[in-house]
Design goal:
Length: 132
């Protein structure tokens, strides 16, 4: 029964692609840069020539970033308030800076992960070409 459920030979493994996307590298080869600028995806990989212009990340990376930052920072704010009882202005200033810094760190990485998932799952035209 497992023989009938075998993956096709041209299957693209998701986990390595996601790791490459997290590192902001090409999901195909892991060598070329995925992004130029802060969030702009390259049309092609400079190392392997994989077409990357098919990506449709849209608002997904922003939603994932907000989800992660919110789930990390909310318990930390509660812990810091209960443990140290800082002035509310100090608490809000420190955590506002922390939220912005964490968001700026995560946003391009979330975009890389989302583009890599699309590439691995052959979504939005990534499966139409022969570069896989």
């Amino acid at each position: 029964m497992t023989d009938t459920l075998a993956l096709p030979e041209d299957d693209r493994p998701v986990r390595p692609a996601m790791w490459r996307g997290w590192r902001m590298r090409c999901p195909n080869c892991g060598e070329g840069r995925l992004l130029h600028g802060y969030l702009k995806v390259n049309d092609r990989c400079s190392a392997c020539g994989e077409d990357l212009h098919h990506q449709r990340a849209d608002d997904g990376p922003a939603y994932m970033t907000i989800l992660i930052v919110g789930h990390l920072m909310a318990p930390m704010i509660m812990w810091a308030f209960v443990k140290f009882r800082p002035d509310p202005l100090v608490l809000s200033a420190v955590f506002a800076i922390g939220c912005v810094a964490l968001s700026l760190f995560l946003l391009p990485r979330m975009k890389g992960v989302l583009v890599a998932i699309q590439w691995a799952k052959r979504m939005h035209g990534f499966g139409a070409d022969s570069n896989g």
